[in-house]
Design a protein that fits this description.
By secondary structure, the chain is mainly alpha-helical. Helices cover about 70% and strands about 0% of the residues.
Length: about 475
């Protein structure tokens, strides 16, 4: 039997296994759910369709990641809580677990998913009517790239290590840790952005330009985002950053494999995947160890390593389901009695500096606030559906998600036309979808979106820059 037939059989078995697990969970929820069976059925149908709409062509990275994050934030949590009632790690405020509260929360989740799906269906209808195909990938990298590529790659990797090292020491962008150094002219912001997504965006551009070279070394270039993801995740104390900075490349490779497979030998692909897995395991262990060492007091009778192993044993099983944002925020806001346009306006304009005193944190009754707020900040995440639910209207949740998704689809269309870079498109889609799904302070989400727009414009300018233009620019700077 050929390798392709074996892989095909494994894919079929995997799909059947997933379908069996999902079907079993759905059947079990109907036996234990205390609310309306109609509401539960609508919830299951909505979120399965939400994922299903990621597959029709033309496919969208932004939609795929947004649908994935929303699905993880709502469906597995609702199913597991309904069947086993394991409890929530994140706070749920005044939510008491009544049938009416569960129905209200699921209808809000349905409205959110419905808005996302409507925007996607409109996109599919317009794409089918126009019969448009995305523009062809440019045949050559930017005019200046071949001449300076070695210097650019060397400088990039050095900066990744140095800036992340500085971030590890000064905490410009670390999960839960307040900055230890405030730079003049708000320079903390660009440094934090570089660690968060800036380097990842830049490397996605370099990888794309590298594959357009006459003799591309795509496999070697793809090591760079894995290395960047490792340094960023460890130095930022983030367990998710590694996957956010690497999984988009695997999705782009899968989506464009027919065009890219000639640039990568199977042996190199296997080594690349092994490197990805090894550094992922190391990053998870390192982040747990560092968090124990930084966040908690470890008594002399214990050790950081022992505490890290104990914490990993407890938290890792929960991370697969409990890590994602969505359901808890909807339960918090759904249980609040004072909702309406005034509340929505208040939460939309909340200053992030309010921290634990902000509206959502007070409603959520956060129990893990830092005992040392000068050094640490630990807050609960609301999620975009919960933010819109402050209006008290399912119509606002629905229309708000239509608008947000349409804006994301438009952004991806602009990236396709301006950059024609699938790696950047996937990376931007994962990053923006993650920020939107976790929205707690809309101001910060807006800032992230504007930063993404600036990055798109900057890379579009670089791609069109000629060597003669670059020389003239450097001469003007030198003068």
């Amino acid at each position: 039997m050929s390798v392709n037939k074996v892989l095909g059989a494994l894919k079929i078995l995997l799909v059947m296994a997933i379908a069996a697990i999902v079907g079993t969970l759905i059947a079990a929820t109907f036996q234990h759910y205390s609310g309306s069976a109609l509401t539960l059925a609508a919830f299951h149908i909505s979120y399965l369709l939400l994922l299903g709409l990621a597959f029709p062509r033309p496919r969208l990275y932004f939609y795929t990641f947004l649908a994935g994050f929303l699905f993880l934030g709502f469906w597995p949590k609702a199913a597991i809580q309904t069947i086993w009632n394991v409890g929530f790690i994140d706070p749920v405020g005044s939510f008491a677990g009544s049938a009416a509260e569960w129905d209200a929360a699921l209808w809000a989740a349905i409205a959110g998913a419905g808005g996302v799906m409507v925007a996607r269906l409109i996109h599919l209808a317009l794409a089918g009517r126009r019969n448009e195909s995305p523009p062809e990938t440019p045949q050559l990298p930017p005019d200046w790239y071949p001449r300076y590529r070695r210097w650019i790659w060397s400088a990039t990797l050095i900066l990744v290590v140095v800036v992340n090292g500085l971030n590890f020491h000064f905490s410009f962008f670390q999960i839960g840790v307040n900055p230890k150094l405030i730079l003049p002219f708000r320079l903390n912001v660009p440094v934090a952005w570089l660690v968060n997504v800036g380097f990842a965006f830049w490397i996605s551009a370099l990888v794309h330009w590298e594959r357009l070279m006459p003799k591309p070394s795509l496999a070697r270039a793809l090591v760079a985002p894995i290395v960047e993801a490792f340094f960023s995740s460890v130095c930022a104390l983030s367990r998710l950053t590694y996957l956010l900075h690497t999984l988009p490349y695997w999705l782009a490779l899968w989506e464009k494999w027919v065009a890219l497979r000639g640039q990568m030998a199977k042996r190199n692909l296997g080594l690349l995947f092994a490197t990805f897995i090894i550094l992922f395991v190391i990053s998870i262990y390192a982040v747990f160890w560092l968090r124990i060492n930084i966040y908690y007091y470890v008594p002399p009778t214990d050790s950081v390593t022992t505490q890290a192993h104990r914490t990993m044993a407890f938290q890792l099983p929960h991370l697969f389901v409990q890590r994602w944002v969505g359901l808890e925020g909807t339960l918090v806001v759904g249980a609040a009695t004072d909702r309406g346009t005034d509340r929505l306006a208040e939460v939309l304009t909340t200053d992030p500096a309010e921290g634990a005193l902000s509206l959502y944190q007070r409603l959520a009754k956060v129990h893990f606030l830092s005992e040392n707020p000068d050094k640490f900040t630990f807050l609960a995440n609301a999620g975009i559906v919960a933010i819109l639910l402050f209006s008290g209207s399912l119509a606002v949740v629905f229309l708000g998600m239509v608008f947000v998704t349409a804006l994301m689809i438009t952004t991806e269309t602009c990236i396709t036309r301006l950059l024609a870079n699938d790696f950047f498109r996937a990376m931007a889609g994962a990053s923006l979808a993650n920020v939107v799904a976790q929205t707690t302070f809309p101001y910060l989400t807006l800032i992230f979106f504007l930063q993404l727009c600036v990055a798109i414009a900057f890379l579009a300018w670089l791609q069109r820059l000629k060597v003669t233009d670059l020389r003239a620019l450097l001469l003007r700077r030198g003068a």
